[in-house]
Amino acid sequence: MAHREPLKYVFYFAVSPEKVWDGFVSAESNRVIFTGAELKTDLKPGSSIEWVGPGPDGKPMAYVHGEVLQVDAPRLLQYTFAMGPNQKMSRATIELVPESEATQVTVVHDEWAEDDPTYTACADGWPRILSRLKTLIETGETFKPH
Known about the structure:
Elements: E1 7-13, H1 17-25, H2 27-33, E2 38-40, E3 48-54, E4 60-72, E5 76-83, E6 90-98, E7 103-110, H3 119-139
Antiparallel strand pairs: 1-7, 2-3, 3-4, 4-5, 5-6, 6-7
């Protein structure tokens, strides 16, 4: 099966890799970034990973679900990714590299099925998520999603 082009984003956060890592995995920052969603995982390879929040009917639903593939805190988080009821899995890799006064944050979202209906939403969503996270970590506040 053909695959779509990988999505790749590189941002620089003016904090340590440990603070960026905490931003990606802490309950508090996930609630802020994902408007109330909870990150549910133990961050161990083979474990499930989900962002769960209120659905259109108010009942909890998994916004994103997958399986943890690799964890090397505070440097690497890799997991499979499917959005909502979609079962077509792609792969998200978050890599943090320390620099002199910042952390380089690289997100690569790849292994897309050609017919994955969430590709466009992710292409739009990752820059927004990373911008909100960067702002939150650097200032303690962030802007509302569109």
